[in-house]
Amino acid sequence: MITAERKPMEEILEFVRPYSRILLVGCNECVTVCAAGGRKEVGILSAGLQMALMKEGKTLDVKEVTLERQCDPEYVEELVTYIDQADIILSMACGCGVQEIARRYKEKPVYPALNTKFMGASERQGIWAERCQGCGDCLLGITGGICPIARCSKRIMNGPCGGSTQGKCEISSDVDCVWQLIWDRLKALGMENRYEDIMAAKDWRSSRDGGPRKIIREDLAE
Amino acid sequence: MGDFEPVIVAFCCHYCAYTAADMAGSMRLNYPSNVNIVRVPCSGKIDVKHILRALQNGADGVYVAGCLEGDCHFKNGNVKAARRVAYAKKLLDEIGIGGDRVEMVTMSAGMGERFARTATDITEKIRALGPNPVKNALAKKRQS
Ligand code: SF4
Ligand code: SF4
Question: Are both A39 and A91 inside the same structural domain?
Answer without folding.
Answer: yes
